[in-house]
Amino acid sequence: MTDTKTPEQLVSGLVRLLTVSRDSDDAFTAPQQPGGVGRVFGGQVIAQALQAAQATAPDGLEAHSLHAYFLRGGREGVDISYTTARDFDGRSFANRRVVAMQAGDDGELAPILNLTASFQRPEEGLVHDDAAMPDVAPPEELKSDMEMRHKMVERAGDRMTEAQRALVLRPRPIDMRTVDRLHWMNSEPREPRAHSWFRTVAPLPDDAALHRAVIAYASDYTLLGTSALPHGLSWMRGELVGASLDHAIWFHRPARADEWLLYATDAPWSGSGRGFNRGRIFNRAGELVASVAQEGMMRKRVKRER
Q: What is d(CA 32, CA 292) in angstroms, rounded to the nearest whole number?
């Protein structure tokens, strides 16, 4: 069955997904991804945890960084609860700690993510910006990743199951347009660098906290795959086993997630079953709006002999 949601409906669904419900002063529950299957997208858990932290932050203070550790893979179809701790409230800075919990097969709640977010009252300060925006093709000249996904599915033919096709082709609220070839587009080893533009497929409300959450959500796309590029391997082709281990974001200046942002990623190291990745997010004016870092488990899949 073809999904006929409009761009506005897709973005409305993303806003609902990233809107946490308050159960008590410091406890929240987040909605599930409609029709989600398998493991919960890590960017979703990060964004929902950030929203829980932002909901308890002192008035006038804005999130400027977060650091998160993935402890267990979350499962679709099971509610996730977020408990916050108000570790510090100062005049200029504040700190919130969030634990995401989900019930396992035995029904017992277990932590799946720890996140700490730092908040600051906006102020003027010394300014320098030494990050040069890469000179790449603009998004208007690029094909959407969804178009590339359709071509990949056509080439795969019977090698993909119906469930795999549905997952790969599921309409997304984020429009990604890649300058280079990502790991699933390429089987030849290449340098560990990638550049992708992204924005929501329809406008978002004028809510700065929501825009930060959407940027956090999108920052988990393409990042871990950068460390796979030198090896010519891909999770989508079943050649790798992997999972995010941690994720950090620094928000440098306000940005809208419904306007084109360039995500430039690189992976300076992989080894010991892990890959380390960095990301820089620029606006169309060439200003650095956020920095990202992530390490993930990355192992070559071993084929079992029958």
A: 25
Question: What is the CATH number for 38?
Answer: 2.40.160.210
Which tokens go with 42? 């890590």
Pairing of strands 62-70, 109-120: antiparallel
Measure the CA–CA gap between 175 and 293, rounded to whole angstroms: 22
Contact 265, 205 (CB under 8 A): no
Range of the domain at 92: 7-122+140-300
Do 202 and 273 contact (CB within 8 A), yes or no?
A: no
Identify each DSSP E strand in 144-191 by its residue range: 174-178
Q: What is the pLDDT of residue 203?
A: 98
Pairing of strands 62-70, 93-103: unpaired
Please tell me the predicted confidence (pLDDT) of residue 159.
62
Residue 254 and residue 77 in contact, taking contact as beta carbons nearer than 8 Å: no
**1: in domain:** no
- Non-local (6+) Cβ contacts of 283 within 8 A are 255, 259, 260, 261, 262, 289
The stretches in the chain having pLDDT less than 70 are 1-3, 150, 152-168, 181-186, 304-306
Residue 89 known to be catalytic: no
Decide if 32 is catalytic: no
Domain assignment present for residue 128? The answer is no
Annotated catalytic residue within 54, 220, 234, 270:
220
Active site residue 244: yes
